[in-house]
Design a protein that fits this description.
This protein has helices spanning 2-19, 22-31, 36-58, 66-89, 95-102, 105-117, 123-141, 150-173, 179-201, 211-239, 241-247, 250-261, 269-287. With 294 residues, the chain is mainly α. It is globular, with a radius of gyration of 18 Å.
Length: 294
């Protein structure tokens, strides 16, 4: 049991860091002239191909029951909404700011689990939520871009809610299959969903034109898609929905560090304090004892 908790905690940390690199690839591809629908389609499509190859080598069956099919469909739809709204928000606000607002999803996860599933909220969970919340607020206040776009904020909050529901569904559906198989179907739905979205929005899918574009498409497919999704499944199964969400505090932290080291954004006192508080929340969750991972 202790090993499962350790594996789940490490997987949650790694998943958060991987997912936090979304802005890096997205902004680079936007700069290359690609639109959101094309970025997400090739991200999901390439990730699905890679997972399919892994499944082939693993000789893993693709058969699912009706109940599993329903759960996988729900996961696919939720992840489409979460990814699309997040990537669209990058057009309305700085990616680092969007990533900090996205971190409202642990609060949403904890509230939903407490209200609808009667999960006990312990003092360690509350303490971690407060620390990480204040930490993210400090990261947010380090932004000097002025008034935030209402559309951008609504998009990020929609992304946060759908991601919270995704984590909960992974945990509550109790799918008895590998994380590769789960994400084979999730990524298929995501790629298909972007085709449907492109048709409805009247936006043609644009093929990446340069080696740089293909590199960042590959990055988005492997790091914040395959790695993050596979690791998140283990985290949700082994340490629970709420803990997995709180460990996600490392997502905005990762985005801030990318801003500092890649886009030369300034390192301020607020950033330093925010980082310390977020890491403190992660340490509390990683070291908690006796809490149910439901």
């Amino acid at each position: 049991m202790r090993n499962r908790k350790l594996i789940g905690t490490l997987a949650g940390i790694a998943a958060a860091v991987c997912y936090g690199t979304n802005p890096l690839g997205a902004l680079k591809l936007y700069a290359e002239g690609m639109q959101t629908n094309s970025v997400l389609f090739y991200r999901f499509g390439l990730a699905w191909v890679i997972i399919a190859i892994v499944m082939l080598f693993r000789k893993e069956s693709l058969k699912v029951t009706r109940q599993e099919f329903t759960a996988l469909t729900g996961l696919g739809l939720l992840f489409i909404v979460s990814s699309l709204t997040l990537y669209l928000s990058f057009h309305y606000m700085a990616a680092g700011v969007a990533s900090t607002i996205l971190f409202t999803y642990p609060v949403m996860t904890a509230v939903i689990m407490a209200v609808f599933f009667r999960e006990r909220i312990t003092w360690t969970t509350v303490c971690a939520l407060v620390l990480s919340g204040v930490g993210v607020a400090l990261l947010y206040w380090s932004d000097n871009s002025g008034t935030l776009s209402t559309i951008g904020v609504v998009l990020v909050l929609a992304s946060a809610l759908s991601y919270a529901l995704y984590i909960i569904l992974v945990n509550r559906s109790n799918l008895q299959m590998s994380s590769f198989k789960i994400n084979f179907y999730v990524l298929f739905y995501c790629a298909l969903g972007m085709v449907v979205y492109s048709l409805i929005a009247g936006l043609p899918l644009k093929l990446p034109q340069t080696a740089t574009s293909w590199f960042y498409v590959g990055w988005l497919a492997i790091v914040p898609a395959i790695f993050a999704l596979v690791l998140m499944v283990y985290a949700a199964k082994y340490v629970g929905s709420t803990a997995t969400a709180i460990l996600g505090a490392l997502e905005p932290l990762t985005a801030v560090l990318i801003g500092i080291f890649v886009f030369n954004e300034p390192f301020t006192l607020n950033l330093a304090l925010g980082i310390v508080l977020i890491l403190g929340a992660v340490v509390i969750i990683a070291g908690r004892k006796g809490e149910a991972g439901t």
